[in-house]
């Protein structure tokens, strides 16, 4: 007899083991993620991402850095060296909601066949530029449309999406006020 | 006589023209940024970023998509296919604070010689996993340390950093509650 061991590309045994370990020792769920960034010129700068702390230890699984470049389009004084920071934020949000959705689908035994999302967000750059003190320099609103095919009912998908939105780390970093401490070293 | 036309890699004339145009027509500062993302498997998914609306028109400066891949480390059930979404959020924050700092330094006539940042953020994954309803699934706090060398006083750098934190779009998307509307298409 063969046991099915993955769902939505996730190893079910590893999922259950992880949940069990955290239920036995909730402190294992404390993670510290990190990034380092260096300015290049104008609106171009580059981050390296590699190490993090989690599951009670420093991670050593990554043998090289991830490297990502921020840029700006010409209308924002750049040369399209990369997506710009507010676009990267949409990428982070898309990825987090997607992964959270897929994870909790797996936990409910729902198999996802297809999943893609489209996001847009409104910004008034009068805030960034300091031209209007009444404008929030951040996104005013972000909209995310999710297209999904799965082996369950529409109601189950709606329930899963509500649960996902309440559980996604990036979604809850955006929709709640999170303290950002910026200091000079 | 030669006129100096760039500061911190930014074209001064273009900066002044942009500010002037927005002061004359504040609606030019309304931008809509976008991303599309497709799930691959497990914690792996990929975004494409290209078009946006701004300065009163659809942008057409980009001749190809930017493509970024989210992944997860083994301890979070992945294979390090890319940085994970909460790490990308740190990259977005680092880039935005850096670009905002450099822009307003230029506006003040401050030349930046070197600028790099280190970020870390705390997350309790009991929130993501739904194991503790009292835990915010998002970052609990993000810390950013900025190392800068510039041709001005320490006091001017401190003033510039405070101003930057209040003006950075990503920083203000994180530290304020921003509505995220997630719907099924």
Automatic annotation (TrEMBL), chains A, B:
<dbReference type="InterPro" id="IPR052924">
    <property type="entry name" value="OsmC/Ohr_hydroprdx_reductase"/>
</dbReference>
<dbReference type="GO" id="GO:0004601">
    <property type="term" value="F:peroxidase activity"/>
</dbReference>
<dbReference type="InterPro" id="IPR015946">
    <property type="entry name" value="KH_dom-like_a/b"/>
</dbReference>
<dbReference type="InterPro" id="IPR003718">
    <property type="entry name" value="OsmC/Ohr_fam"/>
</dbReference>
<keyword id="KW-0575">Peroxidase</keyword>
<dbReference type="InterPro" id="IPR036102">
    <property type="entry name" value="OsmC/Ohrsf"/>
</dbReference>
<protein>
    <submittedName>
        <fullName>OsmC family protein</fullName>
        <ecNumber>1.11.1.-</ecNumber>
    </submittedName>
</protein>
<keyword id="KW-0560">Oxidoreductase</keyword>
<dbReference type="Pfam" id="PF02566">
    <property type="entry name" value="OsmC"/>
</dbReference>
């Amino acid at each position: 007899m063969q046991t099915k061991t993955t769902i939505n590309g996730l190893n079910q045994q590893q999922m259950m083991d992880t949940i069990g370990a955290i239920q036995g020792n909730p402190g294992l769920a404390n993670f510290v993620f990190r990034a380092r960034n260096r300015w290049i010129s104008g609106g171009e700068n580059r981050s390296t991402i590699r190490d993090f702390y989690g599951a009670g230890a420093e991670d050593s699984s990554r043998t090289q850095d991830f490297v990502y470049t921020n840029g700006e389009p010409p209308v924002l004084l750049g040369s399209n060296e990369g997506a710009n920071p507010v676009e990267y934020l949409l990428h982070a949000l898309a990825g987090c909601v997607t992964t959270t959705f897929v994870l909790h689908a797996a936990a409910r035994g729902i198999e996802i066949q297809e999943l893609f999302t489209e996001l847009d967000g409104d910004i008034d750059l009068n805030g960034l530029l300091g031209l209007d003190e009444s404008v929030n320099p951040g996104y005013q609103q972000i909209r995310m449309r999710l297209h999904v095919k799965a082996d369950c009912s529409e109601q189950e998908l709606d329930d899963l999406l509500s649960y996902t939105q309440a559980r996604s780390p990036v979604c809850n970093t955006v929709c709640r006020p999170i303290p950002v401490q910026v200091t000079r070293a």
